[in-house]
Design a protein that fits this description.
Blueprint (H helix, E strand, L loop, with lengths): L1 H18 L1 E3 L13 E3 L3 H21 L7 H15 L15 E5 L6 E4 L3 E5 H6 L4 H16 L2 H11 L3 H8 L6 H13 L5 H17 L5 H13 L6 H5 L4 H9 L1 H12 L1
Parallel strand pairs: 3-5
Antiparallel strand pairs: 1-2, 4-5
Helix pairs in contact: 2-8, 3-5, 5-9, 5-10, 6-7, 6-8, 9-13, 10-12
The structure holds zinc ion (ZN).
Length: 270
């Protein structure tokens, strides 16, 4: 039975391989992100899992009375999201038609994330405690949107899937065993909540910077944002930094990209 299951998974794996394999989810843009990605798990599978996880977050927040409590703040975030999403077709045309959503959670935590497929979540703490400007919010949001555009979570799930330890997960993704809840938990740990790789972080920084510049937000704010993060991490490291480690090299890389994105920003202001 076990052998049969493994064979079935291997067969499914091979067919998935021929269907997807190595490709790049986005166009290169002005910053020139051009890396082939191993994508063995389908977008639909990742989206189904992440929609479930986002819905649970929303439900939990609602039941605690902390969802979207500050209308002015929510509208501010929605305006910034609209301007950034208006630029995503530079990287991939289909993303402009995604069901983008923005919500806030009232919390002291410094946290923000975008779930695959374009569901944005900001904790009020990151805005209020770091006293973020619109440009700095656009820097965080642009970075997170870029993870979604590049399908970094799907890439990580695929990497797990490609390894022997991923066989059990693969079986469950293909509906061959295990309960739905356990699956969501496993996938959540593997693909949705663990830190991204350095490469993925760097790609999200680059694309995010271009998105914000094209949307008319000062790209220099990405630098001041990470400086604020660095300062905030000296006490108790904020949750956001556990998935997005800040460093001087990150800030230096952002600085080095300014000549590429500043003209786009100036153009958008005209
Ligand atoms: Zn990131």
């Amino acid at each position: 039975m076990k052998k049969l299951l493994t064979t079935t998974v291997m067969a499914a794996s091979l067919s998935a391989l021929t269907l997807t394999g190595c490709t790049s989810t986005t166009s290169t843009g002005a910053v020139g992100v051009d890396r082939q990605q191993l994508l063995l798990v389908s977008s639909e599978q990742v989206l189904a899992l992440s929609a479930q996880s986002y819905a649970k977050t929303i439900q939990d927040a609602k039941s605690k009375g902390v969802l979207d409590t500050n209308t002015a703040q929510l509208n501010r975030l929605k305006n910034i999201a609209n301007r950034l999403v208006g630029q995503v077709d530079v990287y991939r045309a289909d993303a402009a038609k995604w069901q983008w959503e923005v919500h806030t959670i009232k919390s002291n935590d410094l946290n923000a994330f975008v779930v695959p497929g374009g569901k944005i979540m900001f904790y009020s703490g990151i805005i209020d405690r770091l006293n973020l400007t619109d440009d700095e919010i656009a820097a965080i949001m642009g970075h997170e949107i870029s993870h979604a555009l590049r399908e970094h979570s799907r890439e990580r799930l695929s990497r797990e899937y490609a390894t022997q330890t991923g066989i059990g997960l693969a079986a469950s993704i293909f509906g061959l065993s295990q309960g739905q809840a356990e699956l969501a938990g496993t996938a959540g740990n593997l693909g949705l909540s663990l830190p991204h790789s350095r490469t993925q972080e760097s790609e999200a920084d680059q694309i995010g910077l271009e998105l914000m510049a094209r949307a008319g937000y000062n790209p220099q704010a990405a630098v001041t944002l990470w400086q604020k993060m660095q300062k905030a991490s000296q006490g108790e490291p904020p949750q956001f930094l556990s998935t997005h480690p800040t460093s001087s090299s990150r800030i230096a890389e952002l600085q080095s990209l300014m000549p590429k994105v500043t003209p786009l920003y100036q153009q958008s202001r005209r």
